[in-house]
Amino acid sequence: MERDPLRPRKFSPSRIAGLATLFAALSPALAFAQDAAAPAVNQADTAWMLISTALVLLMTPALGFFYGGLVRSKNSLNTMMMSYIALAFVGVAWALIVFSLAFAPGNDYVGDLSLALLRNVGLGAQSAAALIPQVLFMSYQGTFAIITAALISGAIVERMRFTAYTLFITLWAVLIYGPIAHWVWGGGWLAKMGALDFAGGTVVHVNAGVAALVAAIVIGPRKDFARQAILPHNVPFTLLGAGLLWFGWFGFNAGSAVAASPIAGLAFTTTFLAPMGTLVVWTLLDLLRNGKATAIGAATAIVVGLVAITPAAGFISPISALALGALAAFPSYYVLLWRASTRLDDSLDVVAAHGVGGTVGALLTGVFAEKAWNGVADGLLFGNPAQLGIQAVAVGAAILFSGVGSFVLLKIVGVIIPLRADSAEEGLGMDVSQHGEEAYVDGEGAILVLPEHVAPSVRPAMAPVGGRS
Q: Is 420 helix (H, G, I), strand (E, B) or coil?
């Protein structure tokens, strides 16, 4: 008897069980095929990025030594702590929300919250272009956020309250750093425009430099500024910090290739050469101006050269890196001299080194970029003058957003916590008044004699250093 073709087919329990068995048998193969289609993590790239992440993390303590040597001894611990504390508060904020704001899909201006609390951040490859585990990519980028926030401290050392500073940089990382990182590196509007920023000229240095300028203006100068000489207490600390920063910067720039690749080799080489060019020019300028080449000048020159090459590291040729480093010395050197003649107390010249250095580097990236080396874009010297204009837009956008946003955040924090120490605390030193410690103690310490005008709230922090009452 023939079956009616219009009549629905009935499946027996045995047939259903057979189909279920077949599906279960094929599931691993289907899953394997799906995994095979996804990009696989590259072990060589992962090894290089593990090293790079550690190198960049080292840069924050190195910055603490660089800054710590430039201040007076009574403020050295406080200055170093301003770098170290960023490892904690900015690092935690990065993991909880800032990474998502910077690198989740979102829109052209900020990422969504799909990666908040590290959800969907696992062991798979970050992308087809970044064949490293997502968790490692998150950690690597987090080291950038940490040191960017810490850079700001150089403009307000020796006078800003530690609690106010900590709250400010935490909020700043969330509301300022996250969005700007998204604009440039997270597929935002500047990335779509074609802005070139290999490792953070705009995102890190211009951003931090502008925030530092605003903070120095809002908080005001130190009480001794322009009244007496304020001299660095430990220049070897500063030289040590500069050397460690250069060491870590190889991870900062070459690591931004996110691969053990020829572009990483190019970025490594340009990072090797550019500060040399800056140091040569800076030394000659020092010799021409006062007949002496100073150690602090050398340390500053190294940092300026590193800052300037950061946006260009993977986009320009090695010989162009030398030229860029040499050219970058002039604006920062003369802005530093000009600043010293004003009432602007940018204590450790963050604006000259990072703000100006980052701006010059970002603009010169639009001049020296060479597609023959980077495969991405040419600059002005190689037939693409429009790239310089794009770079200028990126710099201008970062200046405007960071400047206005930093001002608003400082005013909000100031309502919650007084931004600066009072005159007695500042005179006593920020180490004792903010931390209850001293960097340098003779012998086993001594009983501190408390001036009558010191506020009672400071007194508990000023217990006898040597443990005697």
A: strand
